[in-house]
């Protein structure tokens, strides 16, 4: 993981140098994290997203630059994890708005339109209605976007927005993202724990050589309790699957003439 972070910083710096050498300066400040899918439990968005024209040139340049360096690799852009900063220019006090990519896509639409309906925002961003409604709700709650009193189905950015902070954090997680991320993390944790239990069984059997099933499972629970708090019913289920896997891979074997005694296979 730390290697990915270090390589990503170098990649960002090299990309910026290439842009300067080609006199193709970027209009925005840009940095990226290129992460290996095998090491990061991150899920790609399952909804469409139209990349705003304001950032599309940088997106396009980097995509082409990355392909020249790694022609066999495919980039999957995780817009649901991206963060952005927007500077306001229409208020007396200038603010820096810290936003998600979806919030950015919505707010940039108001550079070209005074008011927008939900359907117009869906057409402009391709964000699903469910997620877009939550995005707008967060912006309204922050008092940066308001619904028009004359036409309640349309919204606009507030000309009276005020904050004690120059840097305003609008980037709050939405329910759909939290649910998806939590599900993916739990899946990864369960997978990791499965391998921990397998390794623990092998380690115990290597030391004991032979062992009955019940003392073995008690010893496994005792050892893994030092790493995480196991739920006994869940552990017994995973333990049973781990035993079957280790028998299949011939790390252990059943002692002949018994049903509940295992022996380590050297």
Describe the structure in brief:
With 266 residues, the protein is an alpha+beta fold. It has helices at residues 2-21, 56-69, 101-108, 118-125, 129-141, 175-208, 213-224, 232-248, and strands at residues 83-87, 96-100, 116-117, 145-147, 154-157, 167-169, 210-212, 252-254, 261-264.
Report what the structure shows:
The protein has eight helices and nine strands. It has helices spanning 2-21, 56-69, 101-108, 118-125, 129-141, 175-208, 213-224, 232-248; strands at residues 83-87, 96-100, 116-117, 145-147, 154-157, 167-169, 210-212, 252-254, 261-264. The strands form three sheets. It has a three-stranded mixed sheet with strand order 1-2-6. Strands 3-5-4 form a three-stranded antiparallel sheet. It is elongated, with a radius of gyration of 27 Å. The two termini are 34 Å apart.
Percent of residues in β-strands = 5-15%
Cα shape: elongated
Q: In what order do the strands lie side by side in the largest sheet? A: 1-2-6
Structural class: alpha+beta
Total strand count, please? 9
How widely separated are the two ends? 34 Å
Q: Number of helical runs?
A: 8
SSE order, one letter for each helix or strand: HHEEHEHHEEEHEHHEE
Low-confidence stretches: none
Q: Which range best describes the helical content: under 10%, 10-25%, 25-40%, 40-55%, 55-70% or over 70%?
A: 40-55%
What kind of sheet is the major sheet?
A: 3 strands, mixed
Mean pLDDT: 82
Radius of gyration: 27 Å
């Amino acid at each position: 993981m730390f290697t990915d972070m270090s390589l990503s910083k170098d990649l960002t710096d090299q990309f910026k140098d290439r842009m300067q050498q080609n006199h193709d300066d970027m209009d925005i400040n840009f940095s990226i994290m290129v992460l290996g899918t095998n090491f990061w439990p991150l899920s790609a968005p399952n909804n469409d997203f139209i990349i705003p024209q304001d950032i599309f040139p940088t997106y396009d340049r980097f995509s082409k630059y990355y392909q020249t360096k790694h022609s066999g690799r495919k980039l999957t852009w995780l817009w649901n994890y991206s963060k952005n900063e927007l500077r306001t220019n229409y208020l007396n006090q200038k603010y820096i708005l810290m936003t998600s990519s979806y919030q950015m896509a919505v707010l940039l639409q108001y550079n070209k339109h005074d008011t927008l309906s939900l359907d117009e925002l869906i057409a402009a961003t391709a964000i699903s209605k469910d997620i877009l409604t939550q995005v707008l709700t967060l912006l309204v709650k922050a008092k940066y976007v308001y619904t028009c009193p004359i036409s309640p189905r349309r919204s606009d950015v507030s000309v009276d927005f005020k904050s004690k902070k120059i840097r305003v954090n609008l980037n709050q997680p939405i329910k759909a993202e939290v649910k998806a991320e939590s599900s993916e993390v739990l899946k990864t944790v369960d997978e990791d724990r499965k391998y921990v239990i397998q390794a623990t069984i092998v380690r115990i059997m290597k030391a004991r050589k032979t062992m009955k099933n019940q003392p073995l499972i008690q010893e496994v629970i005792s050892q893994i309790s030092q790493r995480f708090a196991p739920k006994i019913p869940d552990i017994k289920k995973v333990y049973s699957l781990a035993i079957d896997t280790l028998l299949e891979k011939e790390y252990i074997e059943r002692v002949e003439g018994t049903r509940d005694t295992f022996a380590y296979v050297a």
